[in-house]
Design goal:
mainly alpha; about 70% helix; disordered N terminus; about 0% strand; about 220 residues; elongated
Length: about 220
């Protein structure tokens, strides 16, 4: 069997990146709208809390799909491959270790919730590494195009948004635990997580050249 032509391989990788980007951007909107349709107005306190709603399969399925794409991802060198594999593991951790449920959770539930938080933090840190380090690399033997320079700015903004959102979620957990009930009604964690997930999606859509494509 003849190997696929290089252009086909390039298109497949660009398509994979676009799919990952679309899944990331769509996830918070699909969960929020689906949750409202199934349970009435209002948001869950976090994206992860949709695990305990009728949108559980959408939440878990989307994360598993992202994990598969990350495992399949092949970049320019070994660093890209390793980062993709790590992101795959963390994505599965977020999917299969549910967040600690509300109320009075048992010790096993607290442990599993801790694994969920660790997986979520690792997932977003890895995605930030993609945006800030891997995606911004430029071939030193070539002059970057104007669109490449613009794409690098998008990657950096998205990477820092993800890191900033993670930091604010940590501050929320550490500093506002005593008034969590009041803040939960505002769904601040949900909005911060949604912001981080959307930034992740925009970064990957840009990498897939759906945004700021050379020659456009």
């Amino acid at each position: 069997m003849n190997p696929a032509p290089p252009d086909s391989l390039v298109l497949s990788y660009l398509g994979l990146r676009k799919v990952v980007g679309v899944l990331g951007i769509a996830l918070p909107f699909v969960l929020a709208l689906g949750g409202m349709l199934l349970a009435g107005p209002g948001l869950q306190t976090s994206i992860s809390d949709y695990y305990y709603t009728g949108m559980r399969n959408v939440f878990v399925g989307t994360l598993c799909a992202i994990a598969v794409f990350m495992l399949s991802y092949r970049g320019y060198d070994r660093a890209d491959d390793i980062a993709g594999d790590i992101a795959c593991v963390f994505s599965l951790g977020v999917a299969f270790f549910p967040t600690t449920p509300a109320g009075t959770p048992s010790d096993p539930q607290r442990l599993i919730g801790g694994l969920h938080l660790a997986s979520a933090a690792g997932f977003f840190l890895t995605l930030s590494y993609f945006s800030l380090i891997l995606f911004t690399r430029t071939d030193p033997t070539k002059q970057p195009t104007r669109k490449k320079v613009q794409r690098n700015k998008v990657y950096k903004v998205c990477g820092w948004i993800m890191l900033g959102a993670i930091g604010l979620i940590v501050l929320h957990a550490l500093l506002f635990r005593g008034i969590a009930g009041s803040l939960d009604r505002l769904a601040l964690v949900f909005w911060l997580e949604a912001l981080a997930v959307i930034a992740f999606g925009v970064s990957w859509l840009t990498k897939g050249e759906a945004i700021l494509k050379d020659g456009s």
